[in-house]
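A reminder before we start the practical. When you read a complex entry, don't treat the lines as separate problems. The point of joint prediction is that each chain is placed relative to the others, so the output describes one connected object in space. Small molecules and nucleic acid strands, if listed, are placed in the same frame. In the example below there are two entries. Take a minute to note the order of the lines before looking further.
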Amino acid sequence: MALPGVKAATTGADLRGQKYGPFRSRRDETGLARDKVRYIGDPVAALAAVDEETALEAIELIKIEYEELPAVFDAEEAMQEGAPLIHEEYERNICAYRNFNFGDVEEGFNSSFHVREDHFFSQGLSHAVLEPRAALAHSDSSGKLTLWTGTQSPYGVRQDLSLALGLPASKIRVIKPFVGGGFGGKGDLMPHEVAASLLAMKARQPVKISLTREEEISITRLRNPMSISVKTGVSKEGVILAQYVKCVANGGAYASTSVMLTYNSGLTCLIPYRISNFKYDGYMIYTNRAVSGAMRGHGANQPRFAVECQLDMIAEDIGMDPAELRLRNATQKGDTSINGLVFNSCELSRAIQEVTKVSGWEEKRGRKDINRGIGIACGGFVCGARGGSHTASACFIQVNEEGGVVLSTGSSDIGQGSETTLAQIVAEELGLSPSDVTVISGDTETTPIDPGTFSSRVTFYAGNAALQAAREVKRSLAEMAAKFMEATAEDIEFRDHKVFVKYAPDKTIAFKNLAQMAISFGQGRSIIGKGQWAPQNTQFPDKITRYGNVSGAYSFAAQVAEVEVDTETGEVKLIKVTIADDCGRVINILGAEGQAEGSVSMGQGHALLENILFGDRGQIMNPSFLEYKIPTALDMADVSFLEVGSPDPLGPYGAKEIGEGLIISTVPAIINAIYDAVGVRVTELPARPEKILEGLRKR
Amino acid sequence: MALPGVKAATTGADLRGQKYGPFRSRRDETGLARDKVRYIGDPVAALAAVDEETALEAIELIKIEYEELPAVFDAEEAMQEGAPLIHEEYERNICAYRNFNFGDVEEGFNSSFHVREDHFFSQGLSHAVLEPRAALAHSDSSGKLTLWTGTQSPYGVRQDLSLALGLPASKIRVIKPFVGGGFGGKGDLMPHEVAASLLAMKARQPVKISLTREEEISITRLRNPMSISVKTGVSKEGVILAQYVKCVANGGAYASTSVMLTYNSGLTCLIPYRISNFKYDGYMIYTNRAVSGAMRGHGANQPRFAVECQLDMIAEDIGMDPAELRLRNATQKGDTSINGLVFNSCELSRAIQEVTKVSGWEEKRGRKDINRGIGIACGGFVCGARGGSHTASACFIQVNEEGGVVLSTGSSDIGQGSETTLAQIVAEELGLSPSDVTVISGDTETTPIDPGTFSSRVTFYAGNAALQAAREVKRSLAEMAAKFMEATAEDIEFRDHKVFVKYAPDKTIAFKNLAQMAISFGQGRSIIGKGQWAPQNTQFPDKITRYGNVSGAYSFAAQVAEVEVDTETGEVKLIKVTIADDCGRVINILGAEGQAEGSVSMGQGHALLENILFGDRGQIMNPSFLEYKIPTALDMADVSFLEVGSPDPLGPYGAKEIGEGLIISTVPAIINAIYDAVGVRVTELPARPEKILEGLRKR
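Here is the predicted structure of the whole assembly.
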C-alpha cells in the first residue's frame, strides 16, 4: 500500500463471509486462503493498482512467511490412514464417496461365461479455453456490487460470492459478457472473482483481474485424474451379466463439484447398456494439488474409456465383433435401468448399425497389411441432472411494437450457441426468423433465474422454458388476431412472418402489423410471456440406494474412429471419426456438427496428446501452450455426423443434449482403433508415442 | 475532418430515415436540419473528436451559408393569411386545432345572471432541470446501436430514433440511467441524441454529447407561451351556466406534443367544475422560435390560471366568497362530465372545505390593514390520458432464492421517486419491506414495454402492472406454502417477511425460507410473475365531438396561497401555501409532500419570476440561470399538505396522480392572493414587481 499507485490490497482476513463451493455439503473454499495454503497456487493476497506495471512491482514487495506442512499428492496415498489431512474434517481425505449396488453382482459373475478385470488410468487435463478468465468488479456508492465475469453460471457465482463476502445476494449483480469457451471449468466461483470484488469494495473503484495462461492452467480447474478398475462378466452370447466399477479420482485441494462427479461416474455406466447386476464404488480424494472440477462429460469420460476398452477385450476373448457385442447389450426405448433411469427415447441400436455401415466397419476392421485400425465405442449422457438450489430455468418474452421479439433468459451461452438455439425455438413457434429474436442472457438482475450452463441442460430446460413463454405470447396474439380476422384463436396459425386463419388461407395479417395493432388496440396491452420449466419426471436419487431418474431424457451415441500408427515414431494420427448421434431432434444442425467436431478434437487431445504433469511438490510443470499441447486445426480428423435421433417426448421440439454426450465415446473409440491397427492396448492415457513404441516392443 | 483528432462529422444529409415526432400525425422533425433551418438554434451539423477542446476548435472551422428567409415569431401574426409558412403543409401555420362544443353555450350565456369575458397571457418557461441533457451512443460491430440517454421515455426515444435513422427498432437499445429531473421536457427524441447516434455509427466509437445550460434553455423544449380568452356566465347563486375558452399557443418551430396540448387545454377545463354548456377553441401555432412541448400540467396550467382568476373576479362581481363559488360548482364523485369524463372518485368539495379551514381563510381574507392577501384556486388532472402506440405498462417480477425480489419495469423514474412507489406496492403485496425489492427500469431490451413518464401515468399504470405481477408471484408462493403448511392457498397470508395460515397464526414460514424451498422443492420451479395494465374504462375521444373518457381516474386539488406585497418595490413574497389534495390513497407520503413542495416552487416561478425573453429574430435572450431566474430554497414558502383523497376503485391500492395536478392551481392561487393583498389584478404572467407597481399606480 506504500507504493504510489497501489489502490487497495487484500488477504483472506478481509473476508466477512463463510466458506463456499458449488455443493452445499462440501463448501470448503474461501477464495483467498485464510489459515492454510493447500496447494502451490492457492491465492493468499491480491492488490489493485493504477496499471499492471505498478501492480506487478507491488506484488514483488509482498512478503509471505509459510510454515511448511506435510503434504500428499497421490490419491491412493492420501487415502491411507495417517496421511496428512488436507481438510481436517475429512478422514482419509475422502471428500466424496458414492456406491451403487443393484441386483446381485456376485451371482452375476458366478453365472458368467467369461469374466475379466482390468485397470485403467485417465490423466489430468486442462479445459484449455482460448479465452482466459477475467473479472471486473465495481462497488457503487450504495454498496451494490456488480461483477462482470466470464462464467457459465451467473446465478451460481452470485450465490457463492454472497457466501464468501457475507453480502446479501440482492446486493450483488453478476453479468456474463460473451464467454469464449467454458467446457465446465467456468461454473465455479473463482478466487480472482472474490479478489476483484474485495478490492473493488476497498478501492471504491472498478477493479479488473485477468488471468494469464499460466494461472489459467495452474489455479483454476482440471479434469480429475482418475484410476478405474472394471470387472465385467458376460454370457456366451456376449450379454453383460454383471459389472463392478471402482473409480478413485484425485480432486486436488478443494471439492468443487466432486460429489456430482463421483455420482456421475457410476450413473453414466448405466446409460448405454442394459446391466442387471451392477456395483460401483467411487471416491473423490483431496490432495495437495491443483483443484479438479467439472469438464465436458463430467465424471463420465474416465469410466467410459475404461469400460469401452474392456468391452473390446471381452469381444476379442469370446471371439465376437465388438459392434455386435454392443448391439446385444444396447439400451432400448422404454427401458428403465436397474438404478431407475427412464429412457423415453433411445436410438442406440440404430446408431451402432448406422455408424458401422457408413464407416465401412466390416471392410476396414482387422486389416493386417497396413498400420491402420478402426475402433468403436458408445456412450450416453443426461440432459440436465437434478441440481441444487436453482433447479428450473425461466425466461421472459416481449414482443415489440415493430414485431421484434426479445427473449430474456438466465441461461448462459458460453460459445456453444445456445442463444441461437433458443432464438430458433421462439422463432419457430411464432413463425418468424431467428434474426427477429434478440436474446438477452446471463444477468442476475435483468434475466430470470437459471442454474447455468452445465450438465447439458440448456436446450432441454431453457429451451422448454422459451417454448412455454413463446406459446403464451402466441396465445395472446392469436386472441387479438382472432378479433381482427373474425375467427377463433384456435384457428390462427403463425408462419412466414404472418398469421393465417386455418381453412381460409387468404386471410392474413403480417406479424409486425399484428404486434402493432395488438399493442395499441382497444384499451392497449403489452404482449409478454413467461416460462419456467423443469422436467416433472425426475427425482433426486435415493440417499442410500442412489436409485432415481435424475434426468428428464438421455442422449446416446456410437462412434467409430480410424487411426494410422507410425510404427517407427509411435505417433498416432486420427484419420476419421464417424458419429451416429441420438440427441433427439436436432434444432441447430450447424451447432450439432460443431459439437461433434469439438468433441472429436477435445477427445483426440484426451486420448493422444494432453497431459497435466505434476512436480514433486504437486506443482503443475507444464502450464503453457508451449508445454501443454492441444490439437490444432492441422491435427483435425475428418468428422462425419449422422443424425439418428427420434424426437424425445419431453424435449423442446423433441431435442435432447449434444454438448457432452459425444466426447465420452471418442477416447475409447480412438484407443480401440490403435489396438486394431497395431495390437497395442493402451490403458493409461494419453497414448503418447513412447507408450505406443513400448507396446510395440513388448508385443 | 481535416483537423487531427476529429473522428466523425455529420449533417442532416447522413440521415437515412424519415421525419419523426411524438405524434404520428405531426411528424415534422429530422434532428439535424435538412433543407431549412426553422429557428435560431436549429442544429445543422455535429462532430465528434478525441476531446472537447478539439471538438470546439473543429466547430469553428465549419462554414455554413444561410439563405435568409422571411420569418414570423408571434402566434397571432403567424395565423394571418400570407404569413411565412414554417412548414409548407400547414396553412396559416396552424399545427393543431381542437374544438369542443357541448350543450348550448349561447343559450347558457343568455340565461346567465352575470357574464364576463377576460383575456390572459401565460409566458414561455424553461423546465430548468438541474441536470442538463446528455447522450452516449455506441454502435457495435453487428450494427446494433445502444443509446444511454436521460429520457422520460426510452421506448418513445427508440421508436423515433428508428424513424430518424431508418434502422429497425430491434437494432436499437435505449437505456435510461438515473435522470435528474424531466418535468415533461425529456419525453421527446432530441437532436443531440440523433447526432450522437449518427456520429457513433460513423466513428465506430462511443460518442457522448452533453448540452450546456445555454443549449438546454435555447434548443430543447419550453412551456408554450399562450394567450387565453375566457367568457363565463353564472347564475345569481354562482352556478356556472356557460363557459367559452379560447387558447392560442405559440409552439415554435416543431410540433412536439402539440396535439395533446391543444386537446388538454380544453379537456382540463371540464375536470374541477360541473359545466353544462361549454365551448372551446384551441390553436397551436408554428413560429420561428424555439420549440415548445410538454411541461408539468401539459396544457392545463395556462387556461386554469385564466379561469381561476376570472372566477375570483366573478365572485367579486356578484358579491360571493370565492371559496363558496367554487364549492357550488365542484365536481362530485359519480359525475360524468359533459364531455364524457367519468369521476369514480372525487373529494374536491372536501378539499375546498379543509383547505379553507386549515389556512384560516375566513379570518385572513380581505384584510385592508396590511399588504397581505390570500387566494384560492382549484384544479384537476388525468392519471395517464389515452396514448399512442405503447398504451399499457408491463412488468416482470422474480423472487430470488434468498428471498429478494426483482421488479423489472419499463417505467422511468425521472427523480419523482416512482421506483420507490413501485417497490412499496410489490413489498406491500408480499409482506416485505421496500428495501427487499430491487427495481430495474428503463432499458428497452431488458425491461418490458412502457410508454414512459408523462401524463401522470406511472403510479396508476405501472403501479397496477406491478401489483398484478406481485399477485401472480404471491399465488405461486401461496400454493407452495399451502403444501408445506398443510393449508389451502387461499388461507395463506403474507406479512412481516413471513407467511401465515389464516386462523392458525402459530404456523409460519419466513418468506426467504419459503422462496428457497419453493425454488428447489419437488421438481423445482422459478417464482416469476408478469403484469400488464391499462385501464379498461377509457377510450380515445371521438374524432369530431372530442367526447370520451380519456383517463381511468382524475385527481383534484384546492389550494390557498398567502402573499405579502412590498408596495414600494412591487415585490411579492409567497408566505404560505396550503394544499388539500385528492390523489386517491397516498402510497408514499414523502413523495407526495415532495410533489406538493416542488409544485409550489415551480408554480411560484411561473407566477412571479420566470420568463423566457425572445429577441427580434426569435432568439432566446436569457439562456442562463444568471438571467433566467428560478426560485431557490431561500424563496420557498411554507407548504402545508392535507390528504383528503379516498381510494380510487381503479388505482393501485386506490392511488391516483400527484405529479402534475398540484401545480395547475398554484399559479392562480398566488395571483388571486396578490389581488386580495393590494387590489392589483395581474392577467399577464409573470407578476414581476414592475407590473405590480404599475397596477398600484393605476389603482
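Discuss with your neighbour: Chain A has three domains: 6-69+133-210, 222-386+541-698, 393-533. What might explain this?
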